[in-house]
Amino acid sequence: xxxxxxxxxxxxxxxxxxxxxxxxxxxxxxxQIAGIVAGSCAKGLVAGMLIGWFAKKVNNxxxxxxxxxxxxxxxxxxxxxxxxxxxxxxxxxEILIPGSLVGLIVGFLTQRYGAMVLARR
Amino acid sequence: MIAVxxxxxxxxxxxxxxxxxxxxxxxxxxxxxxxxxxxxGRFRTFLRRCLQDFASTQYESSRxxxxxxxxxxxxxxxxxxxxxxxxxxxxxxxxxARSVLTLSLDRLREECGASGRQxxxxxxxxxxxxxxxxxxxxxxxAARFSVPxxxxxxxxxWARNRFRGHALETLRALTTSDAEFREEARxxxxxxx
Amino acid sequence: MMSLSDAALTxxxxxxxxxxxxxxxxxxxxxxxxxxxAVYRATDxxxxxxxxxxxxxxxxxxxxxxxxxxxARVLAALEHPGIVAIHDAGRLADGRPFxxxxxxxxxxxxxxxxxxxxxxRLRRFLAVCDAVSFAHSKGVIHRDLKPANVMVGEFxxxxxxxxxxxxxxxxxxxxxxxxxxxxxxxTGDGVAVGTPGFMAPEQLIAAAAVDxxxxxxxxxxxxxxxxxxxxxxxxxxxxxxxxxxxxxxxxYPSVDALAADVRAWLDxxxxxxxxxxxxxxxxxxxxxxxxxxxLLLAYVVVRLFILWWRGV
Lengths: 121, 193, 312
Prior knowledge:
The complex is a heterotrimer.
Chain A: H1 3-20, H2 22-25, H3 33-57, H4 61-81, H5 92-113
Helix pairs in contact in A: 1-3, 1-5, 3-4, 3-5, 4-5
Chain B: H1 2-9, H2 13-29, H3 43-64, H4 76-79, H5 85-114, H6 118-129, H7 138-145, H8 149-174, H9 178-188
Helix pairs in contact in B: 1-2, 1-5, 5-6, 5-8, 6-8, 7-8, 8-9
Chain C: H1 6-17, E1 25-34, E2 37-44, E3 49-55, H2 62-77, E4 86-91, E5 97-102, E6 106-108, H3 109-112, H4 118-137, E7 140-141, E8 150-153, E9 158-160, E10 167-168, H5 169-172, H6 177-184, H7 212-226, H8 234-243, H9 255-267, H10 278-288, H11 290-311
Antiparallel strand pairs in C: 1-2, 2-3, 3-5, 4-5, 6-8, 7-10, 8-9
């Protein structure tokens, strides 16, 4: 699987997973879980594709991991700053930290496991 | 054979020569040599065994005599220091190789003498025979024999080729089959050592 | 009659034995002697480079001469970085067949690997497999693979030498020449005798068909030899056991299959020859993916921490 595609898939899957785990760390958001999961998945797909694209351009584990962390944080930030529409409560760290970690994991995955596609002559 | 007798029985040269002479006299008189069977091994090995048996018999006889005999009475301690059978074999083979190559050298000398290549022969002997320990430089040979330096290599090349031919021809003449020729060639070239 | 000193005797023996390679090649010292002739260091006067010149002894029988010529043709057909290149072949002025090949400056494989890690030894082994596999693809079976016939050159290249008893696969079936020499142990006719422990059992049985699996056996024995001197992991032992199975049908069907298993071992993947217990499989999976597993665990820990923190 090439790196951008791996990033897309991993980002999407981990995004769904990340969204679902909100039920564990913040059970009160259960009524909005569908939206949370959908948003997390979309975030993961976009971030994952970008991280995978970066891995295709830069073959360096550290750089890939750092970029992944940064993308994860960047995409998680708007959601982290957004208050819950029902309760008005903010879940800043509960969203930012796991989101950044997911970005880091996708960065690692694309660097380590993605297949290099050799340039055609 | 004399060298083998001297080494194995610790004989003086004269005694070894006498014993070798006696051996051949006995061999011819009693027709030992006709007993040789090609199927059972090389003729040299057969000859060596006959010599061994003869020398042992002579040794026993001399021990029974209080005086005289061809062999000096040897104490049992000294007898224990005699060469092993393998060493005797090796010496025998080496001496045989020496005689074959000496014969080949003589043939080369005859050929060179007959074809006006005496200088070629002399250069070869000076480099590969007399100078075997430390071969002389080509320049020294050239000066010694009053030939161009470039010619020295040519002489050696030609003489070595001819010497090789004579050695193999001599060997062929001494053997009766291809298999025997190959065996003897290995001994001649020291590959069995 | 001249009398020859011991030194003269030695020198004249060398004169008789040493090949005269004419104007093209200047022959120097003897490098080695085997059942199929002697190898000398020589200089190609035309190209001004050192080469190795293999030649039969003066007393060679004609059938051995044909073997050497066949060996030269086999080498010429095998152009591969792991197989020593042949430059020239023919007959000397005295009728002795010879061929000239690249002079390999290096060490025998078994000497080279003494200072190397197991991983490096396995990579050397894979290079040998590559060369032999290539030969098999050209229909040539080596039949005498052993540590003495593998060299590591000065640039780290691995070279398989001595194709003296190599045969085209089509010629091998029913060929007993190699078998007869093994039975008689006669090296005098210039026919190579295989090394005990490296010859597949079928090579010792008259009229048995010998195929590429004979080389698989020898490679398995070679691998065992290379890995001695330390603890050998169970999967590697299983690979060696499969390659050196007494019955050909129990071995790897090809050198490529053997090499694939060795590569799998090097990559930390599962090895076909080894029935891995579940716990070993899990451990291997963990070792291959430890970083990812730890990252995922870290994510779980963070989630649990957040849960705890919110509870607090």
